[in-house]
Design a protein that fits this description.
Elements (H helix, E strand, L loop, with lengths): L1 H34 L5 E7 L5 E7 L24 H8 L7 H7 L3 E3 L4 E2 L22 E3 L12 H14 L2 H17 L22 H6 L2
Parallel strand pairs: 3-5
Antiparallel strand pairs: 1-2, 1-4
Helix pairs in contact: 1-2, 1-3
Length: about 220
């Protein structure tokens, strides 16, 4: 029953948000085009519900071809690949707003596990059966891992939170994540990589006492 309500509220909120933020979306798109060559919207393949691959939409915050330069998928403080406008929209998480379109398309939800790249943190075949539970629900614009460390967390720890969310998804938990996300955005915390955060599943298994850890946060 909650899944139906969640989808209805996702669509309703996304439509309202797109209408309210339309002037901002247009302004950001224009500024990106003025500052650097390339499209204002960046599309990238991610893995969603049911392990289905889809194109995620974000405002482009880096120069074109950034992933092929230097640090690959990792960005860092002072990363020269990030544009001036990109630094601002990243700090305020404005670069994520185009994902409202992903929500309307049914690819994503407002709240859920963040959709992972097809090749990062590792190939889909390398996820354990436990870790694959994160793909049972629509990925979100924000999620439990994002309000409990975000980019400072090692990936197996992020996935631990994702699995916990899929097993305990509820209105109360979504509301809690939503308001924690607002606080994180206002404080601009944990939105930059400080180190590489990938360890192979065999090196760091999902911790079984996830519920205890989450409640202690």
């Amino acid at each position: 029953m909650y899944r139906f309500f969640k989808r209805f509220s996702d669509v309703f909120i996304s439509v309202i948000a797109l209408i309210l933020f339309s002037p901002l979306l247009l302004l950001v798109a224009i500024l990106i085009k003025i500052e650097s060559k390339g499209p204002a919207i960046f599309k990238q393949q991610r893995i969603g519900r049911g392990e289905k691959v889809f194109d995620i939409y974000k405002f482009r915050s880096m120069c074109v071809g950034a992933e092929k330069m230097g640090s690959g998928q990792y960005s860092f403080k002072g990363d020269p690949r990030v544009t001036k406008i990109g630094r601002i929209i990243r700090k305020l998480s404005i670069d994520e707003l185009p994902q409202l379109l992903n929500i309307l398309k049914g690819d994503m939800s407002l709240i859920g596990p963040r959709p992972v790249l097809t090749y990062h943190p590792w190939d889909i075949s390398e996820y354990t059966d436990e870790q694959k539970k994160r793909f049972l629900v629509r990925p979100g614009v924000t999620g439990l891992a994002q309000v409990n460390g975000r980019k400072t967390l090692e990936w197996t720890e992020r996935i631990k939170y994702d699995v916990y969310y899929t097993e305990h998804m509820s209105l109360f938990l979504d509301i809690k994540i939503f308001f924690k996300t607002i606080i994180k955005i206002v404080c601009a915390s944990n939105n930059e990589n400080t180190k590489e955060t990938v360890a192979k599943p065999a090196q760091s298994k999902v911790i079984n006492d996830a519920e205890t850890d989450v409640h202690n946060k």
